[in-house]
Amino acid sequence: MPEITINTNGPIIIPAADVVLKGNNGDEIPLPKGSAIALCRCGESSSKPFCDGTHKACGFTNDPTA
Asked: Can you give the pTM of this predicted structure?
């Protein structure tokens, strides 16, 4: 079972093995190379749905345990 991590003030991290990511139209979204996928939560990434680190510059804050 994949372990999904929601980072405080950062992206959602999902192991890339055996993952298929689809858009709301059902089309598969090509995954970036690597062993994990970082999904944007701040909404400001220029590579949505993937995180590009913009959350640090835009001041995104969220504590998923709150």
From this structure: 0.87
